[in-house]
């Protein structure tokens, strides 16, 4: 089999004409710890329905009428009884050890933006449910008045980006006043800066109602191993056949993608040996250093694909994969990665079926492509964006939800790069940045990391929200490892050690939570995920971990 016929899930691009010298991150003016937010987000404040049921199951309405029903029919019936809104379209299904169904809200045959519901059934009985369906006070006509061409011009003017020819869709947006406004949903982007927006323009008068930002910022490879945080940990190794046969049965391959202004490189070798040696005496742009950077990022991203595939981020659950092999979901959505770019780390995550775009840049200490936790951080944004809300990648528009997204992105490298059950602190991006990029190390010691739910900023500041959510996951990981031990092989999801359990709870919780989750929503989804997969075996351990950071039982939104 030739290299180019293998499964294409990752594309690697390297910027041409880069003239920035090493040390572009100025020490006097350091890059902010959160590097992804490009636009002020707007979101309706209308209430949404959220219910997390206790561990006992409840019957759906059809069972009460002694009617035999499929799981899909039972899910529809239950959602309608709780929201009083009929799920007008079909439900999508994902199976963990329970059946989870998702559906969207429609009005007048038109989709309501970000109105998503999910219900989980076990043995055809409801065990959890969440929805952010809304009942509009007033519903605009389904017939647009304002010209679509003019709406596109308005979207371009407001964002400074250009319409990318993606089909314009009519959608209802629920405003703060509770009205359903008919809008054109227009996609605009800037290839140079990786900006990608969905702009909702009022179809009656052309006013921009909302802007959604999608930026969250026998083959052998010479790489820094997957569990190494950066090249200072273990150096480089020549790793043979690293990719998982279940997740990537045909291996991995860099896909050639044209991009004006960029030089695209086929990451290939006639011998399938990618043995590029990094030379620290040369500039990051000289010799084989760019090739070494590309190979390392390619390896880490494909390992993330394979690992999370094992835990449920598959074709059916909207993963990043060029060829879905007939296993469901929309394909042609590889992960495109640009190294030696202009930002220290950024990712753009559109809906399932559209390629994601990641960029890694040059840091003060060297090429960010060798800071593995940053690559994992960015890839995690893609996982979180796709799993929450059913593959739409549009469910992190509030400040709290956006901050939680950043928290998960720190939590995964912290988990993956553990090599034992030791209760050790985690410093993010410490090699490339020269020091911890976050305010505090992630630690179970509250003196070392003092963030608590309810502290100033943890409901309004993205960084504070992110660091709190990430340290909560740090607490959960350590607590579960102390109770269940450590699995040296994280790629075996059947193991019931603390680190494998943690990864299951992260993935399952993302699937279970509603669009634009709050701390409470995300917490409850984790508790429910444990009930679904482990029959609540870790209930007390999880509640103790949440309570330690002020998010315990009975704690509502503050």
From TrEMBL:
<dbReference type="GO" id="GO:0008270">
    <property type="term" value="F:zinc ion binding"/>
</dbReference>
<keyword id="KW-0479">Metal-binding</keyword>
<feature type="binding site">
    <location>
        <position position="406"/>
    </location>
    <ligand>
        <name>Zn(2+)</name>
    </ligand>
</feature>
<keyword id="KW-0645">Protease</keyword>
<dbReference type="GO" id="GO:0006508">
    <property type="term" value="P:proteolysis"/>
</dbReference>
<comment type="similarity">
    <text>Belongs to the peptidase M36 family.</text>
</comment>
<keyword id="KW-0482">Metalloprotease</keyword>
<dbReference type="GO" id="GO:0004222">
    <property type="term" value="F:metalloendopeptidase activity"/>
</dbReference>
<dbReference type="InterPro" id="IPR027268">
    <property type="entry name" value="Peptidase_M4/M1_CTD_sf"/>
</dbReference>
<keyword id="KW-0378">Hydrolase</keyword>
<dbReference type="GO" id="GO:0005615">
    <property type="term" value="C:extracellular space"/>
</dbReference>
<keyword id="KW-0862">Zinc</keyword>
<protein>
    <recommendedName>
        <fullName>Extracellular metalloproteinase</fullName>
        <ecNumber>3.4.24.-</ecNumber>
    </recommendedName>
</protein>
<dbReference type="InterPro" id="IPR001842">
    <property type="entry name" value="Peptidase_M36"/>
</dbReference>
<feature type="binding site">
    <location>
        <position position="377"/>
    </location>
    <ligand>
        <name>Zn(2+)</name>
    </ligand>
</feature>
<keyword id="KW-0732">Signal</keyword>
<feature type="binding site">
    <location>
        <position position="381"/>
    </location>
    <ligand>
        <name>Zn(2+)</name>
    </ligand>
</feature>
<feature type="signal peptide">
    <location>
        <begin position="1"/>
        <end position="20"/>
    </location>
</feature>
<keyword id="KW-0865">Zymogen</keyword>
<dbReference type="InterPro" id="IPR050371">
    <property type="entry name" value="Fungal_virulence_M36"/>
</dbReference>
<dbReference type="Pfam" id="PF02128">
    <property type="entry name" value="Peptidase_M36"/>
</dbReference>
<keyword id="KW-0964">Secreted</keyword>
<feature type="active site">
    <location>
        <position position="378"/>
    </location>
</feature>
């Amino acid at each position: 089999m030739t290299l180019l016929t293998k499964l294409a899930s990752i594309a690697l691009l390297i910027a041409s004409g880069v003239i920035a010298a090493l040390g572009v991150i100025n020490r006097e003016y350091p890059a902010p710890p959160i590097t992804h937010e490009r636009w002020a987000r707007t979101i309706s404040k209308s209430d949404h329905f959220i219910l997390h049921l206790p561990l006992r199951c409840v019957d759906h309405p059809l069972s009460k009428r002694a009617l035999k029903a499929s799981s899909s029919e039972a899910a529809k019936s239950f959602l309608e009884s709780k929201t009083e809104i009929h799920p007008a379209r079909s439900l999508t299904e994902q199976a963990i050890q329970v059946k989870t169904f998702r559906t969207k809200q429609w009005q007048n045959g038109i989709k309501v933006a970000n109105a998503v519901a999910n219900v989980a059934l076990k043995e055809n009985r409801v065990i959890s449910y969440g929805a952010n369906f809304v009942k509009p006070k007033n519903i605009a006509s389904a017939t647009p008045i304002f010209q679509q061409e003019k709406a596109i011009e308005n979207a371009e003017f407001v964002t400074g980006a250009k319409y990318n020819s993606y089909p314009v869709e009519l959608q209802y947006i629920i405003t703060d006043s509770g009205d359903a406004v008919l809008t054109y949903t227009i996609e605009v982007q800037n290839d140079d800066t990786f900006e990608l927006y969905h702009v909702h323009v009022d179809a009656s008068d052309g006013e921009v109602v909302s802007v959604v930002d999608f930026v969250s910022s026998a083959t052998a490879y010479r790489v820094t191993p997957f569990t190494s945080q950066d090249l200072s940990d273990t150096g480089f190794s020549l790793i043979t056949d690293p990719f998982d046969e279940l997740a990537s049965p045909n291996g991995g391959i860099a896909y050639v993608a044209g991009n004006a202004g960029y030089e695209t490189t086929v990451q290939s070798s006639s011998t399938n040996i990618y043995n590029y040696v990094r030379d620290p005496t040369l500039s990051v742009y000289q010799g084989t250093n760019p090739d070494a950077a590309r190979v390392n990022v390619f390896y880490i991203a494909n390992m993330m694909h394979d690992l999370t595939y094992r835990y449920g981020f598959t074709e059916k659950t909207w993963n990043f994969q060029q060829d879905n092999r007939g296993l469901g979901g929309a394909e042609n959505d590889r992960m495109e990665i640009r190294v030696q770019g202009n930002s220290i780390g950024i990712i753009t995550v559109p809906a399932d079926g559209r390629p994601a775009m990641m960029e890694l840049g040059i840091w003060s200490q060297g090429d960010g492509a060798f800071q593995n936790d940053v690559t994992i951080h960015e890839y995690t944004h893609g996982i979180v964006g796709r799993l929450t809300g059913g593959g739409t990648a549009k469910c992190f528009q509030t400040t709290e939800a956006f901050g939680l997204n950043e928290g998960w992105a720190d939590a995964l490298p912290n988990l993956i790069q553990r090599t034992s059950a030791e209760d050790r602190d985690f410093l993010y991006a410490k090699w490339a940045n020269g020091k911890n990029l976050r305010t505090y190390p992630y630690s179970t010691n509250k003196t070392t990391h003092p963030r608590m739910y309810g502290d100033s900023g943890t409901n309004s500041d993205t960084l504070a929200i992110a660091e709190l959510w990430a340290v909560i996951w740090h607490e959960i990981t350590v607590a579960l490892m102390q109770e269940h031990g450590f699995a040296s092989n994280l790629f075996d999801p059947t193991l019931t050690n603390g680190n494998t359990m943690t990864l299951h709870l992260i993935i399952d919780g993302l699937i279970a939570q509603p669009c634009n989750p709050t701390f409470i929503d995300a917490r409850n989804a984790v508790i429910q995920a444990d009930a679904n997969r482990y029959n609540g075996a870790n209930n007390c351990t999880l509640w103790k971990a949440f309570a330690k950071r002020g998010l315990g039982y009975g704690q509502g939104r503050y």
